[in-house]
Amino acid sequence: MLNLLRKDLIALKSSLWMGFFYLAVFSCAFIPKSELSIHFVGIYTAFGLISLGTMIDIKNHNHHFLVTLPVNRKHIVQAKYVAAVIFALFGVLGSYGIHTIAKSAIPQLNKPDYTVLDILIPAGVLLILISIYMPLFYALSKKGAGIINTVFLIALIILAQPTAYLINMLNEKSAAHEQALLLIPVGILLLFIASYFLTIYLFRRKDL
Question: Is 112 helix (H, G, I), strand (E, B) or coil?
């Protein structure tokens, strides 16, 4: 599985600059205008890298090649999920770093003090997106990858405001807030695990 993960990272190496490009563009777009820019920059950057990685697989016919090797399809899926988590961490931590610098360098932006919750919330949202995206990608693959990426991009734009509302709710101090902080991570983790096993099932049944 480790070699498959290296394959994903090497395949994206030539396009690694895109990660920093996404980070810069979304930072310029959200930081001056949104109070929740730290969340949006991380989410959009990470998902941009995830979709780029899957499109590289489609373009290079990587799955068609890998299934001809003595490689378990489960390990192929494992590597893709781990790579997606790495991209999510890059987006979230990159956003946190840029916002920390911006807060010190440009105090006129009036950015709040950031907490661990400002890292955990976008990370949780990204795990949900990965859990939905991966089964769809492996089920539709080449025929529907472009459509999936377009639909997810539109959905991210449309759901920006509802997401901001939910984030504000999570930031409120109350008994319900404390219960949510305990239950939501468990629910996200269960969804992620269920998505992983569903993707393996779909990929094993797929005729490439």
Answer: coil
- The two tokens of residue 133 are 């995206």
Could you tell me the pTM of the whole model? 0.84
- Nearest CA to 82 out of 71, 72, 70, 74 is that of 74
42-84 per-position pLDDT tens digit: 999 998 888 888 887 777 666 666 666 667 778 888 888 998 9
Give, in degrees to the nearest 5, the angle at Cα 40 between 166 and 192: 70
Q: Residue 75 corresponds to which tokens in the numbers above?
A: 């390990």
* CA distance linking residue 73 with residue 104, whole number of Å: 47
Transcribe 124-172 into DSSP letters.
Answer: HHHHHHHHHHHHHHHHHHHHHHHHHHHHHHHHHHHTHHHHHHHHHHHHS
Distance CA 140, CA 190 (A): 23
Cβ–Cβ < 8 Å for 129, 152: yes
Separation between Cα atoms, residue 116 and residue 97, nearest integer Å:
13
Q: What is the CA radius of gyration of the chain?
A: 18
The tokens for 101 are 């610098």
